[in-house]
């Protein structure tokens, strides 16, 4: 399996506070990956480390097997759209594309023109006079015209309306289908991620809590509902991720390593939103009296 982005115990510190710590993950080629976490979890820091804008204080980050800092061969294969979609506001889209062509040897101006034509964005209007959604589309077209092997997107749709957000994601998926680019997309909007992403990275408290193929992760997690004093957990439970209790009932989200068959517990499939919120939450996952995670 080819790995596009790999981190090993990666850490970045600002003063005494760690913005990212002990971050280890591997992103396979060809995936559209969701990078999820609350504000301050380290998402932007991870992306800035991956494009060489920051240097780590611990561990290592590799892109295409190499360190990205000042490596033109690596950086020429990476596209990055930052959270505030920074563009020269007095430039038109055409002027932005002209600059892109002068700075990137494989810049595909025809692709950039085609992307904007498909969604009706004028190329002769100053970028600063476009809507937020249109500016995000210009930034995406600029990044994709670079023909990158890896595209990093830091909350690119956070400030735009739902219709513009959907158009942006449709454009993204069209470009991915056309080019085969690997994508790492940071977002808080779980419904968007569920529609577009097939790989998941969950960051919480500056650390990676979960990483892997979305289908595989959903298949190995279940929600269990049983009596508050329902006795031992079923065989096949490897980890209690989150637990919620009422006076009479316990609801658990668990990670499994085998089918769950126990009449004392009802097992249900989980959604991507269930999974993400469980790993981001601070709910009680400690065993109650009578619980035992089977060996």
UniProtKB/TrEMBL annotation:
Record carries keyword rRNA processing: no
UniProt source species: Micromonospora craterilacus
A Pfam family this chain is assigned to: ABC_tran
SMART domains, alphabetized: AAA (SM00382)
Domain of life: Bacteria
Keyword list, A-Z: ATP-binding, Nucleotide-binding, Transport
A GO molecular function held by the record: ATP binding
Name by which UniProt lists this protein: ABC transporter ATP-binding protein
Gene3D superfamilies, per database record: P-loop containing nucleotide triphosphate hydrolases (3.40.50.300)
The UniProt record lists the keyword Transport: yes
Location of the ABC transporter domain: 5-230
Lineage: Bacteria, Bacillati, Actinomycetota, Actinomycetes, Micromonosporales
